[in-house]
Design a protein that fits this description.
162 residues, alpha/beta, five-stranded parallel β-sheet, binds 5-O-phosphono-beta-D-ribofuranose
């Protein structure tokens, strides 16, 4: 199944492309779109409403400021939607964080950290891996790599300071 990666503005791309890279590294098919909840609400609605029949399994929505994109997509699909609040100049991302995370009851958005595109991608992969054993194996291998990297640093510092 595909992951839809939607951003509210092309200005969000420097953040979002870190997540796109993770999805590509795992071999997950990705479709990338720029669709604003404010500037093209009808196209954003249509995208979400047809996402399931178009082969998507998860949607990722990145937006900054009064970040309504993830909620607007979630309002029009029952696919899981992951929100990435993007940092902007005025409030350091707190505006987007609260807009994305504080969804009213009944329409969930799984919100990652401000600018947390890598975790959004990993969470999307974890959702797909529930029914995809090959992806689950790749996730386990990636976790082991992270563990090994930390333990290698630990060994290096212990050798240096003890
Ligand atoms: C949001 O407004 C976008 O997601 C972006 O983070 C922010 C600013 O958009 P631009 O004015 O840079 O297009 O809708």
């Amino acid at each position: 199944m595909k992951v839809g990666v939607v951003m509210g503005s092309v200005s969000d791309l420097p953040v979002v492309e870190k997540g796109i890279k993770v999805l590509q590294d795992f071999g997950v098919p990705v479709e990338v779109r720029v669709l604003s909840a404010h500037r093209c609400p009808e196209e954003a609605r249509d995208f979400a409403a047809s996402a399931r029949e178009n082969g998507f399994g998860v949607l990722i929505a990145a937006a900054g400021m009064a970040a309504h994109l993830a909620g607007a997509l979630a309002a029009n699909t029952t696919l899981p939607v992951i929100g990435i609040p993007c940092k902007s100049t005025n409030f350091d991302g707190m505006d987007a964080l609260l807009s994305t995370v504080m969804m009213p009851s009944g329409i969930p958005v799984a919100t990652v950290a401000v600018d947390g595109a890598k975790n959004a991608a990993l969470l999307a992969i974890e959702i797909l891996a529930v029914t995809d054993a090959g992806l689950a194996e790749k996730l386990a291998a990636a976790r082991k790599k992270e563990t090994d990297a930390v333990l290698a640093k630990d060994a290096e510092l212990r050798a240096k300071y003890h």
